[in-house]
Amino acid sequence: MEKIVVPKQNYNDKKMKHDIKKLLSRYSDILYHTVIGYSVEERGIDAIRVGTGEKEIIMHGSHHAREWLTSVLLMDMIEWYAQQIKEKETYQSVAINELFDKVSIWIVPMVNPDGVEFVQTAKSTPNRHQANDKIKKYQEAWKANVRGVDLNRQYPADWDTIDDRIQKPAFANYKGPAPLSEPEALSLYSFTCAHNFLYAVSYHASGEEIFWKYKTEGALLKEAAILANKLSILTGYSLVAPDENPSGGGFTDWFLTEIKRPAFTIEIAPYVGPRAVPLKYYDHIWRENCYVGLFLAKYAVDHPNA
Ligand SMILES: [Zn+2]
């Protein structure tokens, strides 16, 4: 059967929506789709559920515009997992279709569709919202949404104490006027609060690292450490020890401190600096990450007290 998601190409919201439509028709009994909210430029923020189980996991990508290869990776995972369920393949001697009767993985592949559009095509227009005619020179390095707010500095976890040297809209690192001031972050926040997710994975780029700790303590620290070590072995990525006073505001920071369940920020690809990850790294990235969802799903089933 011809593959739907073609990973080694530029990828934006339009292409993704086209693929989602095809995936939903091919795997109608396995995948479910919903829109969790709308971006500043009113693009629907898509969420796809793989499986029908009661235990829920969330994975998402492209909070940061230039990191759009994380959306490709997640879309590729959706297709591969759906195919494995349909063909009743096994993972570590467990039938994958039975695993997904017990677990659902919710995937939000592109949290920041407007930003991705700008990085890829310059069609989305941050200057319309920011009156900054020099904005185009930041196109390649753009991380923020179109209003110049860094969506991964928007979550209510020690937001007040985030380094606020950047006081106005910018291509990166501006935390915004208030927590959850941006519709993209608010959509993911509300969606997450309305569910009972056991684990969360935030995909970012680059550096081949996993952030997992933030200010975690006690039983959660223990559980998160076990999972972080296993994810490190699975991906080959190194674990990051946070600073003494880590800066908050990220989805993972918020999930750990407020939802009080393990959460991981996984940075794909060798460090590439302030630009998109080159497509030549994709095959590696896929091999390193394709089992992440299956691993967490199986772990959730094997540890019923979690
Ligand atoms: Zn990022």
TrEMBL record:
Domain Peptidase M14: 7-300
UniProt GO BP: proteolysis
Pfam families: Peptidase_M14
Co-factor requirement: Zn(2+)
Active site positions: E267 (proton donor/acceptor)
Highest taxon, organism lineage: Bacteria
GO function terms (MF aspect): metallocarboxypeptidase activity; zinc ion binding
GO cellular component, one term: extracellular space
Keyword Cell inner membrane: no
This protein's UniProt keywords: Hydrolase, Metal-binding, Metalloprotease, Protease, Zinc
Recorded family membership: Belongs to the peptidase M14 family.
Protein name: G-D-glutamyl-meso-diaminopimelate peptidase
